[in-house]
Specification:
The protein is α+β, with helices and mostly antiparallel strands. The protein is built from five helices and six strands; from the N terminus they run H-E-E-H-H-H-H-E-E-E-E.
Length: 208
């Protein structure tokens, strides 16, 4: 009887040891796999570039989200510059508007069509006006994906120089891929102008 109990105890002990060894192996494998995955992931962020002499130089990739706010602001500034910085050249205006439309949804096309119907672009050509835009500030709420743009627009005509205050707002949507026409992979949505008013007008001497 004692021998049977001894055998049963040894069997239980052997079972516990086997189970413990198995669980320990699983833990070791899981730990090694985790660190191997981390290592591979980190190594993919390291790339080598060649300098003019052909020597490889280690470069580090940065997480796109770390600099996303700066990209959003750059995208917003670029769109407004394309849309509001114009010269009296119909081909140039057409090009600017085409490039701007890659950065905005149908709300941008709606504003463009409204300005076109009101003869805004025709007046630029007829008065030889040069429009320039300066970005003053961009308020960005990343959680809501909302922005408000503050800028100063200057309209230089033969007869006068007008300075306008420009305020617009809209939302942002991330795109899956980048392209030459939209390098930041962002789309402005629900864009509208809140203010576009004259703040000063300087008359020019017609004989100059």
């Amino acid at each position: 009887m004692m021998m049977i109990k001894s055998i049963e105890s040894k069997i239980r002990l052997a079972t516990f040891l086997s189970l413990g060894s198995f669980l320990l192996c699983l833990a070791v494998v899981a730990t090694v796999s985790f660190f191997a995955y981390r290592y591979v992931k980190d190594s993919r962020k390291s790339i080598y570039i060649l300098d003019p002499s052909g020597t490889p130089i280690l470069a580090k990739q940065t997480d796109v989200q770390l600099n996303r706010a700066a990209e959003y602001r750059a995208h917003i500034a670029k769109f407004h510059s394309l849309f509001f910085s114009l010269v009296p050249d119909d081909k140039f205006i057409e090009y600017q508007m085409k490039q701007a439309m890659y950065l905005v949804d149908e709300s941008g096309a709606l504003q463009y069509n409204n300005l076109k119907e009101k003869g805004f672009f025709t007046s630029i050509l007829s008065s030889s006006a040069v429009l320039t835009l300066r970005t003053d500030s961009i308020f960005l709420d990343e959680k809501r994906m909302y922005f408000r743009y503050y800028g100063t627009q200057k309209i230089d005509r033969r007869s006068s120089s007008i300075t306008r205050s420009l305020i617009t707002e809209g939302n942002l949507v991330d795109l899956e891929t980048r392209s030459d026409n939209n390098p930041h992979a962002v789309l402005i949505t629900r864009w509208k102008t809140l203010e576009n008013r004259d703040i000063s007008t300087i008359e020019k001497n017609a004989f100059q």
